[in-house]
Design goal:
The longest helix is centred in the middle third of the chain and has 16 residues, at 278-293. Helix content is 33%, strand content 22%. It has helices spanning 6-13, 54-59, 83-97, 112-123, 137-142, 163-170, 193-205, 220-227, 278-293, 298-305, 335-346, 367-381, 393-400, 410-415, 440-448; strands at 16-18, 28-29, 40-42, 64-67, 76-79, 102-107, 126-127, 151-155, 173-178, 207-216, 235-239, 246-252, 258-264, 267-273, 316-319, 325-329, 353-358, 385-389, 404-407, 428-432.
């Protein structure tokens, strides 16, 4: 079985084909800005109606269109009652038709994408590309899942209750991993962190009977998940200090990454990473534990983990003139992830340890307090300067104290005399922030100047 033709897709999702049903799309695309020739463009009705961009998709080389009514734009069209429902059914049916022997899901408040990369490398598995971890992106990726795979690793994200439950309906899981239950998106949960734990626990609830999932032994909310009645059909495996699986002999290698030994019931396995920071060692220990428990050879697991390199915005390190460095962690931000990345920064060579932070989002009424506590914790770790911007910059600065500068927006941070240009030569710089504040602009400015 190769990739599906439009005829085959229509047999799974229903609808009417207008044009050449033998067309075989190479991928699905939800966005004309990133559409590649040969893709099937899915016209979703959201804040902007995807049908308005169908002509542009055809001009860019779309092989077909998935639409909810016939369009006078040419090209082959699959017309369905609901394009979102059809997209999800397409991905769900494709996974069922070519299902790998092992399908693993990953979620967590921090570290999902890095841990997905680590687990996929440890298992030699197919993985969801980029951050396609929601009810749109996951079925988009699964719709052209290759056949003949031994294993697949799927990232599953959420910002509200029920999202991960829906993802496990689309992609039932044999095994799972929760990196950490933190406070990201807490404003969307009336029960606070328990609500987040319940939502992350939907991954465990969605495991096939007898499935295995791993978590940090130190995460009290993961232990809470493991004790819930709806989690008893699956096997929980804690990883940590007093457990059969854990990490020891940790060695920080600065810009080169880190090393540790994974403790297992059969002995220890030496692992060397190219990702800096002890938080990545924890992620790698979780990934290695799951891979080994699923039957993968420990030496091959270690080899795979050692090949993972940082992606832009997710731990990529840049050398700067004067002996300094810039740690690009701009993809997103929570308090837990900021502090983990700050600890990684302090293990790197260079001068003063400083941070450039965009504000965090979706923290609800606790947002001022969480920003203040994060600033205070950064000072406690040993950072000496902080440049903050966004709607909670003043809260960051109030917690950090002397040495902090607050700016209302990126333009002020960039242009003020006390802004980015005031960062001392040779500094070790952490840059991080929520997606809303596009902290990658600070990275681009610092690398250019």
């Amino acid at each position: 079985m190769t990739l599906w033709s439009l005829f085959q897709a229509a047999s799974q999702v229903g609808g009417e084909i207008l044009g050449d049903g033998s067309v075989v799309p190479t991928s699905l695309s939800l966005d004309t800005r990133t559409l590649q020739p040969g893709a099937c463009f899915v016209a979703l009705r959201a804040e902007r109606d995807g049908h308005d961009f169908a002509a542009q998709a055809v001009e860019k080389g779309a092989a077909a269109l998935l639409v909810d009514h016939p369009l006078a734009v040419g090209g082959t069209q699959l017309v369905v009652p609901d394009t979102l429902a059809a997209l999800q059914k397409w991905g769900q049916a494709r996974l069922a038709a070519v299902r790998p022997r092992q399908v693993c899901g990953i979620t967590g408040s921090v570290g999902k994408t890095s841990t997905k990369e680590l687990l996929a490398a440890a298992m030699g598995a197919w993985k969801t590309p980029g951050n396609r971890n929601n009810t749109l992106g996951l079925p988009e990726a699964l719709a052209t899942l290759p056949e003949g795979l031994a294993s697949a690793v799927l990232e599953m994200g959420m910002s509200t209750p029920g999202e991960i439950r829906r993802l496990t309906e689309l992609a039932p899981l044999d095994a799972g991993l929760i990196t950490l239950v933190g406070t990201a998106h807490i404003e969307n949960f009336s029960k606070g962190q328990q609500g987040i734990a319940e939502a992350k626990g939907e991954l465990v609830a969605g495991l096939n009977r007898g499935g295995l999932w791993v978590h940090l032994a130190s995460d009290a909310w993961c232990r809470w998940i493991a004790a819930q009645p709806w989690a008893q059909h699956a096997q929980a495996l804690a990883v940590g200090d007093t457990e059969a699986f854990g990490w020891e002999a940790v060695e920080a290698l600065g810009a080169a990454g880190g090393a540790f030994r994974l403790r297992t019931p059969e002995g220890s396995v030496p692992i060397r990473l190219q990702l800096p920071g002890e938080h990545q060692i924890r992620n790698a220990a979780l990934a290695a534990t799951l891979a080994i428990r699923l039957g993968h050879d420990p030496e091959r697991v270690a080899e795979g983990l050692g090949q993972v390199v940082p992606e832009p915005g997710r731990g990529r390190l840049h050398a700067l003139p004067g002996g300094g460095c810039l740690l690009d962690e701009t993809y997103n931000a929570s308090s837990d992830s900021i502090l983990a990345c700050a600890r990684a920064l302090l293990q790197l060579p260079g001068g003063e340890a400083v941070a450039v932070l965009g504000s965090m989002r979706e923290l609800g009424p606790e947002a001022p307090k969480i920003h203040q506590e994060t600033g205070r914790a950064l000072r406690g770790l040993g950072l000496v300067r902080l440049w903050a911007y966004g709607d909670h910059a003043a809260d960051y600065a109030a917690g950090f104290g002397p040495g902090a500068q607050a700016f209302p927006d990126f333009e002020s941070l960039r242009d003020a005399a006390a802004g980015l240009s005031a960062i001392p030569p040779g500094a070790r710089i952490l840059v991080k922030g929520s997606r809303f504040w596009r902290a990658e602009r600070a990275v681009d400015w610092l690398l250019a100047h």
